[in-house]
Amino acid sequence: MKKVIVGITGNEKEMPPMSGLTYVAVARDLAEGIKAAGGLPVVIPIGTPDLAKDYVDMIDKLILSGGQHVSPHFYGEKQMVDSDEYSLARDEFELALIAEALKQKKPIFAVCRGMQLLNVALGGSLEQEVRDHWQEELEGTSHGLQVRPNSRVSQLFGQGSQINSFHRQGIKRLAPDLVVTARDPRDGTIEAVEGRGSMPILGVQWHPEFLCKDCQSNQQLFDYLVHQL
C-alpha cells in the first residue's frame, strides 16, 4: 500500500551559531511521529511563494511546524514586540502553502506557530504577547486542557489532559472558518482549533512531537493526521 506523504514545513537554523552556515531545520520528533503512524514525512524548506503549488501537488497532507512569531503585518497591526524572532520569507512562503493546500482540499495539521499562522491566513489575528505560557524544561507538561465535547480533539484527549507550553503569542480574533476545540482552563487561551464543517484542518498550540513518545494521546494525533484527517 502506498504511504501517505506528509509535508512538514522547515525552518532555517545557523549551526554552529555565528558560523555563517545555514541548515534546513525541523524537529526530528515531528518526522518520527509521522513515521510511527505509517506515513512518509518530507521536509519542505523555506522557498518563494511561486513554489507552493509544486510542493502541495507532491504531498497528501501538510504540517505547519513551530518556530518564529508571525509578522503582525499580515493581520493589520504594528509590531509591538521588540524581537528578532520573525521571518518574513517564511511567513510569505507558508501562507502560500496554506492557500494552495486549501485550494487542493488537502488536510492541514498546524502546530504552535503553525496554528497561529493558519488563523491569520483565514482572517484572524494574534495576541502579540502572552505571559506564563513558556515552561522552563523541554520535557514534561505545563497545564491541563479544557476540551470541547464532540470535537476531533475530544476523540483523543480527555478533560484535564496535560500538555506542554512553548509559546509567547496566541490567537486573539478567531478566523471565521475555525472552531475552538480546547482552551487553557487557567486563562482561556485557545489551545486547539479545527475547521468548520468538513474542512480538513486541525491545529494545536502545544508541541505534541515532544510528548508522543511517552503519551499515547499525542501519538494518536499523528495517527489521526495520517489515516483520518
Automatic annotation (TrEMBL):
Keywords on record: Hydrolase
One family name in Pfam for this protein: Peptidase_C26
Gene Ontology biological-process annotations: polyamine catabolic process
Family matches, as InterPro entries: Class_I_gatase-like, Peptidase_C26, PuuD-like
Name of protein: Gamma-glutamyl hydrolase
PANTHER family with a match to the protein in the record: GLUTAMINE AMIDOTRANSFERASE PB2B2.05-RELATED (PTHR43235:SF1)
GO cellular component: cytosol
Domain of life of the native organism: Bacteria
SUPFAM superfamilies reported for this sequence: Class I glutamine amidotransferase-like
GO MF: gamma-glutamyl-gamma-aminobutyrate hydrolase activity
